[in-house]
Amino acid sequence: GAVVSQHPSWVICKSGTSVKIECRSLDFQATTMFWYRQFPKQSLMLMATSNEGSKATYEQGVEKDKFLINHASLTLSTLTVTSAHPEDSSFYICSAPPTGTRQETQYFGPGTRLLVL
Amino acid sequence: KQEVTQIPAALSVPEGENLVLNCSFTDSAIYNLQWFRQDPGKGLTSLLLIQSSQREQTSGRLNASLDKSSGRSTLYIAASQPGDSATYLCAVSNPSGTYKYIFGTGTRLKVLA
Fold first, then answer.
1. pLDDT score for B101
2. In the predicted model, what is the mean pLDDT of chain B?
3. A117 sits in which H/E element
4. What single string gives the DSSP state of each residue in chain B?
5. Does position B100 have pLDDT exceeding 90, yes or no?
6. Which residue of B has its CA nearest to A101?
7. Which of A27, A47, A51 lies closest to A37, judged by CA?
8. Residue B98 pLDDT more than 60?
9. pLDDT of the residue at B40
10. Residues of A in contact with B46 (CB under 8 A)
11. Strands A112-116 and A107-108
12. B107 with B9: CB under 8 angstroms?
């Protein structure tokens, strides 16, 4: 089946630094990818939709200047948490539907756990 | 605004029991509903997807039903096993933007050997 990878799987950083998380579709192309955030013991919340070759669209309440998204190719989307603070500590998961399929067929990455000290 | 709730929040059962997980959503205008499994610290695995026009889907020991008009779905797990221990999430997508999933609060299941 289709595989989505994320890198890194774990990251610890100091408050004020920026962290980049990569989401890759390994064996299919994805013009759209989605970024979710999950706080402890809570469910997943959609943060933004990453669109290859155009700007990302953000959900209400998500700061676009803080969470920078770049979808540089058909297999890679990156999420950069700028000036990270402890409240940004969370589990970040991406998902991607293969191009040409109905978008409900999505494959999820294994997630990246971010801890900001 | 669509809200998805799952009951119970946590469940602990002995091995071999049949069990039912519940999911309810406030807006019946959905495109489809999916059940996912999430292991601790891991990503999601899709278990079953039910289109809005369908009433149920089955895969092995899992059966999911959908009653769109009442805003409810159930996930039935037959003959539970310790390996079934995980968090189960349901999610609905809306008709206008089929990619946008609204996730439920999850049910943490523990099956005791």
1. 85
2. 91
3. none
4. ---EEEE-SEEEEETT--EEEEEEES----SEEEEEEE-TT--EEEEEEEETT-SEEEETTEEEEEETTTTEEEEEE-S--GGG-EEEEEEEE-SSSTT-EEE---EEEEEE-
5. no
6. B99
7. A47
8. no
9. 83
10. 106, 108
11. unpaired
12. yes
Nearest-by-Cβ selection for A46 from B46, B101, B106: B101
**Length, in residues, of chain A:** 117
CB burial of residue A22 (10 Å; 0-12, 13-18, 19+) = middle
Burial class, A37, CB count within 10 angstroms (exposed 0-12 / middle 13-18 / buried 19+): buried
Q: Above 90 in pLDDT, residue A105?
A: no
- Written as six digits, the tokens of B98 are 């089929």
Lookup: tokens for B15: 């091995």
Burial of residue B51 (CB within 10 Å: 0-12, 13-18, 19+) is middle
Task: Determine, for residues A42 and B105 on separate chains, whether the beta-carbon distance falls below 8 Å.
Answer: yes
3-class DSSP state of A86: helix
B37-60 pLDDT per residue, tens: 999 877 888 899 998 899 999 999
Residue A44 has which token pair?
């997943």
Taking a C-beta distance cutoff of 8 angstroms, is the pair A74, A96 a contact?
no
- Percent pLDDT > 70 in chain A is 95
Buried b / exposed e along A106-115 (16+ C-beta atoms within 10 A): bbbbbbbebe
Give the largest CA-CA distance in chain B.
44
For chain A, the average pLDDT equals: 90
